[in-house]
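Reminder: ligand-aware prediction takes two inputs, not one.
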Amino acid sequence: MNFDTFNFSPDIIAGVRALGYTTPTPIQIQAIPPIMKGRDVIGLAQTGTGKTAAFVLPILQRLLKSPRGRVRALIISPTRELAEQTCETVDELGQQTGLRSIAVYGGVNMDQQIQRLRRGVEIAVACPGRLLDHLWKGTIDLSNIEVLVIDEADRMFDMGFLPDIRSILRCLTKPRQTLLFSATMPQDIRRLVQDILHDPVTVQIGRAAPAATVSHALYPVKQHLKTALLLDLLYQIETESVLVFTRTKHRAERVAQQLKGAGFKATSLQSNLSQPRRRAALDGFRNGSFKILVATDIAARGIDVLRISHVINYDMPENMDAYTHRIGRTGRVEQNGDALTLVTGADAGMVNDIERVLNTRLERRTLQGFDYAISAPDSDYVRSPRHLPARTVRSQPLVKRQFALSAR
Ligand code: AMP
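Here is what comes back for the chain with adenosine monophosphate:
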């Protein structure tokens, strides 16, 4: 099957080709036809499945005809990163269509957004808070919306955005097509679906479980040895881009510092960062100048880097959904990825949950040559590479390490 099956206009096919897509992904095969027919659709798909193009392509097709210069499609995203990435996808796929888009999110000056809106756009990709600011100021007009997309609805719910979404919905008066994408379906999202979707078609890609192209492994370790083990893992395994998850912002920053101190091209992404610094971290990670990004769950939402070869859970995620979302960053669209999780005794319950959902026992791995017996120092552990347990630092001559790094 190829993209010709959908009867997109040549201008849209040009965008598909420019992005190098040859075969539609399963979510695209299932979701594009009903969306093209104007049906409301619930897409149960995690990131990495190609869900963005599944809704962007039919939207472009629909908007090709008739009026320009007014906002006719609204895509609501939980985070600025996802909003920006979706907007990029719109621009890339729609590069020959003349359709214009805007990403609307907070943390940056409103004036530029207002000017762009005044110049005229057809597609707005917006985070709820800033969109409401524009609505209150009267600087965005949603009276011409024909298609509404609620993307990553479960994340939106986790982040407490559902009341904002309902406020936004009250401003959409015209009958419209509504599409809702979510990796999971918590009760509140089901209720929202009942309230706002009309006779929806549900398309579901697999279960709400991590992608099948990802291999999972556990590295049991004591808490105080996590950083040392992470460093040794990074020295030993072949990686492309690596996304490391920590539970707290503070730890994300600290682990990134430790990796940098050990010579890795690493940076961190956490919600305390200013917008320019987030941008710099993300751009650097995308263009490869940073090989390792250490992030918290919230900060990492929506990160789309095609060549993430490894997701490493420095800390176990809080629940299965978070695990699925983290792991969704690797193994994207038919590529293989590895998900490595450092586990301590306290994580036994979550390990059980993951094994139940994946319906398999996860491999427990021991890193060869790593000294698991080092006892915890009295004070806070491993503050800098100089304080790492002896084996990690001393047994790797600096030249060998630098070689290992430059070879990556
Ligand atoms: P998404 O699930 O929308 O975040 O998409 C994940 C990644 O898959 C993005 O980098 C897309 O550019 C890419 N992608 C989407 N559709 C296709 C396709 N049909 N073939 C190859 N890559 C795709």
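The longest strand covers residues 214-220. Confidence is low (pLDDT under 50) at residues 379-408. We will return to this case in the review session.
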